[in-house]
Amino acid sequence: MPSTAPRRKRVATAARTAEAPVPGAALLARVEALIERLEALLPTVAAAPDWDSAVAFRWRKRQGRAGLYPIAQPARIALTDLCNIERQKQAIERNTRQFLARRPANNVLLTGARGTGKSSLIKACLNEFAGKGLRVIEVDKADLTDLPDIVELVSARPERFIVFCDDLSFEEGDPAYKALKVTLDGSLAGPSENLLIYATSNRRHLMPEQIRENLSYSHEEDGEIHPGEGIEEKISLSERFGLWISFYPFRQEEYLTIVDHWLAHLDCEARARAGARTEALQFALERGSRSGRVAWQFACAFAGARRRRAT
After folding, report:
1. pLDDT digits (tens, 9 = 90+) for 99-140
2. Topology of the domain comprising 51-208+223-247
3. Those residues with Cβ within 8 angstroms of residue 19's Cβ, 6 or more apart along the chain or in another chain
4. Among 292, 300, 298, which Cα is nearest to 84's?
5. Which residues of 144-183 are buried (b: 16+ CB within 10 A; e: fewer)?
6. C-alpha 2 chain-centroid distance
7. In the chain, what are the domain boundaries?
8. pLDDT at site 210
């Protein structure tokens, strides 16, 4: 009788082969596990916030989750606190009122000298119109790539939203530049009816410009064939803002008017305010600027020193 051992050995080998994973399947399982671990590290959009808890929000990434977080104590500056920028106030008030009334309105770019009230004007608009349904979402430049998520999150809300980008500027190849450009005007999706972008910048065209770029007729061996097109690309973003509001350095008397306003706001009597002019000018000279920000800083220093002496 022939031995059955070789046959049993072949059967056992076949069974082990059937149970063992195919090399390709094992690789696929490892790849899927790796993808799951990577997905856990990527930021995900958080649930919508409690819209009734605040009138201002920040877009932030916390513990891998991106979302809107309420600002408990937004700046309380009022439109009446902003002096010597009446034309700028009228322009942004008119645009914001149109937006709140669901009439056509523009995205806004506020540019010009530092400390002249660009950011304060947007904060003051929030305080003026929050009771009429205005909400402000502050977004850092680094997070502008998330703008599509923000638009989707607020698109069905009844409130009117302003995305506030402060001190905006870009460098060559910055991905946030392209993201903002597409959101403003350049996507297949239409703009959100209940959202505008208000941005401030010290640069009118938002990107650095070199003198050599204006030498369009000087071509070097390895230079760009159509240098004018490079210039057009740089200014194309700022042109997508429908309303430009420019700010200029304050003259001496304008600066002193702002100082007087803030000293009155801080309960300094008229006699003390009149005697503060020389100190205010010296304070500005030391800082090399007669801006509204410097006026506020002087008023705080002056009023604080007087209260300390009084106690």
Report:
1. 999 999 999 999 988 899 999 999 999 999 999 999 999 999
2. Rossmann fold (3.40.50)
3. none
4. 292
5. bebbebbbebbeeeeebbbbbbbebebeeebebbebbbeb
6. 86
7. 51-208+223-247, 252-310
8. 46
